[in-house]
Amino acid sequence: SVGLTSIMYLTTNSILAGTATVGDLVLVNGLLFQLSVPLNFIGSVYREIKQSLIDMEKMVELRETQPTVKDDGKEVCPEGGTVEFKDVAFEYDNGRKVFSGVSFSVPEGKTVALVGP
């Protein structure tokens, strides 16, 4: 926007000096507008592509992460039991807390889902 303002200022000075007309100012304004809209579009496409590449990199990083709990392949089938969670907390890597201090139990044969906004 500094460049656009500078060019408009130079054109205005040319009008005051008598080397350009008001029509020239309108012409320069139109040309700058026709140039700035496609450049703005190219900039937004570039930002979208860059963000997509960052997201893909994070997905690959997440996919290559080794689980901390190893599955030994044995099936766990408790009969008549419940699964109980006490004082559970969850937050993202950046420190944004989702929930903390949550306690609940899930009886046999039931399914529980934690859904948020």
Keywords:
2 strands, rod-shaped, alpha+beta, single chain, two-stranded antiparallel ribbon, about 120 residues
Radius of gyration, in Å, reads 31 Å
Strand order, sheet with most strands: 1-2
Helix count, per DSSP? 2
Spans of at least 5 consecutive residues with low confidence: none
Average pLDDT figure = 87
SS content category: alpha+beta
User: SSE order, as H and E?
Assistant: HHEE
- Tell me roughly what share of residues is in helical segments: 40-55%
Largest sheet: 2 strands, antiparallel
| Distance between the ends | 38 Å
> What percent strand?
15-25%
| Gross geometry | rod-shaped
How would you summarize this macromolecular structure in one to three sentences?
By secondary structure, the protein is of the alpha+beta class. The protein has helices at 2-17, 22-63; strands spanning 82-91, 97-107.
Mind explaining what this structure looks like?
The protein is an alpha+beta fold. The protein contains two helices and two strands; from the N terminus they run ααββ. A two-stranded antiparallel ribbon has the order 1-2.
SSE diagram, text form:
Blueprint: H1 2-17, H2 22-63, E1 82-91, E2 97-107
Antiparallel strand pairs: 1-2
Helix pairs in contact: 1-2
